[in-house]
Design brief:
four-stranded antiparallel sheet; Cytochrome Bc1 Complex, Chain D, domain 2; five-stranded antiparallel sheet; 13% helix; mainly beta; globular; 7 helices; Methylamine Dehydrogenase, Chain H; 499 residues
Length: 499
């Protein structure tokens, strides 16, 4: 009985102390020490990444905290990320997750020396190889980015048979970019890695890390330079496309000295320049390439994102931060010329053009409302608004097809795809390629005879449709094929594809 009484008294003391706020606090996990022990070898002691990706909040936006807990506990399939669920308890996993979603106290330096230290020439270009080492048409290849297991598949656009598959960097973003002859393709990852791949020999030729958190890359009109748009550090990096050596680094600041992230960089082929959208300051940058990279500032009223360019690259259309309008910029004049009311946050970067009743029009889905806007490019007026089954993300067409395809990327109807008749501006068919799974990102083959749809799922696929009959022809299993890029359509700047 005394033993039982002693235990009861001890329990009462602990309870009272806790109620009084005097109970000793449980030891909190030492997150930095846990990181050093379990994570630093792969992800770097500074969290900037090594063979594993950078573990910074800017680089982890696709992952989210809730999912990160599961990745630490259970690992990531088809990668070298192990499971720590048996080594770490829930509080330790939570502490590690909080740490990697905490910004660094000091912005890291990533200049020319740091970039050049990462540059790796994997394979020297064999100048005697003048033709592809396979029988497929090299200009009708598709480069398919599979984000589910971080691979890229090279697909024959005539037979729709894969001819090669290789491991990519983590989280490729912004779309691959091709040299004008279609031989080389460049990839950019969220972690700043730029990879050069030879579509003739099917080999990675070179890599370099041009930033810590990168938005996208662009290639110069002559294929000689690569521009890299960075969130971290605030820089625009110009690389030599042959060996990925640093040619130039622009420290991105406004004319008043305010530092800014770079939202995106674009090739402007008819201007022989790069055009950069700045996230934090009311400027647009044009990097002229005629006599070496020289900066031209376009002063605007507010920062703009998500650019669309007309076919002549005289004007650009940028989304306003209010999510209700877009602004037309005359690039030659360097100033805004019109504001268009477009509520629902139009995804202008996915805009496409075609000729409708002797006039050029562009169409864009909206990210926050179920609609597609069709705009007359002669006077920038809204010609028509189509109601869809939900907000969309991607829209595609081809010069030789009657139809434009747009997804319903967000919301409960994400498994639907709308098909619009470009001659009547009406939705004529709605398809459901894989019930319950997101259908997105259409791309056409070289002659526009087939449309290829992605099923965005780890257990996903690409689905090939006859572009005239709109009937399914074939499907190929793939791991979350986020995007497919046809060489011909990209190097010719097809009006049905984003640029």
């Amino acid at each position: 009985m005394p033993l039982l009484l002693n235990r009861l008294l001890a329990a009462i003391v602990v309870t009272c102390a806790a109620l009084a706020g005097t109970a000793p606090a449980m030891a909190q996990p030492d997150a930095p020490e846990l990181y050093k022990k379990h994570c630093a070898e792969c992800h770097g002691a500074d969290r900037l990444g090594r063979q594993g990706p950078a573990l910074l909040p800017q680089n982890l936006k696709r992952l989210r905290k809730k999912r990160a807990l599961g990745v630490i506990a259970n690992g990531r399939p088809a990668t070298q990320m192990p499971a720590f669920g048996e080594q770490l308890d829930k509080s330790e996993i939570a502490a590690l997750t909080d740490l990697i979603f905490t910004p660094l106290a000091i912005q890291p330096v990533w200049g020319k020396a740091e970039i050049e230290a990462t540059r790796n020439i994997a394979v020297e270009v064999d100048k005697y190889i003048k033709a592809p080492m396979y029988g497929a048409d090299p200009l009708n290849l598709f480069v398919v980015v599979e984000t589910g297991d971080h691979h890229v598949t090279i697909l024959d656009g005539d037979s729709f048979e894969p001819i090669h598959r290789f491991k990519s960097r983590f989280a490729l973003h912004g779309g691959p970019k091709f040299t004008p002859d279609g031989r080389y393709v460049f990839f950019g990852s969220r972690d700043g890695w730029v990879t050069k791949f030879d579509l003739y020999t099917l080999e990675i030729l070179a890599e370099v890390r041009a930033g810590i958190n990168t938005r996208n890359i662009a290639i110069s009109p002559d294929g000689s330079s690569i521009a890299v748009a960075n969130y971290l550090p605030h820089s625009l990096v110009i690389l030599n496309a042959t060996d990925l050596a640093v040619e130039n680094i622009f420290d991105v600041r406004s004319k008043d000295g305010e530092s800014s992230r770079v939202s995106a960089v674009y090739q402007a082929p008819k201007r022989n320049s790069f055009i950069a959208a700045l996230k934090d300051v009311p400027e647009i940058w044009e990097i002229k390439l005629e006599q070496g990279p020289t900066l031209r500032r376009l002063n605007i009223d507010e920062p703009l994102d998500d650019f669309f360019f007309d076919q002549g690259y005289r004007h650009l259309l940028g989304s306003s931060r209010d999510g209700k309008s877009a602004v037309v910029i005359d690039i030659d004049a360097g100033k805004p010329v019109k504001r268009i009311a477009l509520p629902g946050l139009p995804h202008l970067g996915s805009g496409i053009t075609w000729t409708y009743r002797d006039r050029q029009v562009m169409a864009t889905p909206h990210l926050k409302e179920g609609k597609v806007s069709v705009i007359d490019l002669n006077d920038w007026s809204i010609l028509k608004t189509l109601e869809t089954r939900g907000p969309g993300f991607f829209m595609r067409s081809h010069e030789k097809t009657r139809y434009a395809w747009t997804d319903v990327f967000f919301g409960p109807n994400r498994d639907l795809m709308h098909i619009i008749d470009k001659t009547s501006l009406e939705i004529v068919k709605t398809i459901k390629p894989a019930p319950g799974k997101t259908a997105a990102h259409v791309e056409f083959d070289r002659d526009g005879s087939h449309a290829i749809v992605s099923i965005w799922d780890l257990d996903g696929a690409i689905v090939i449709y006859d572009a005239a009959t709109l009937e399914e022809v074939k499907r190929i299993p793939m791991s979350k094929p986020s995007g497919k890029y046809n060489v011909w359509n990209k190097i010719t700047f097809s009006e049905g594809s984003s640029h």
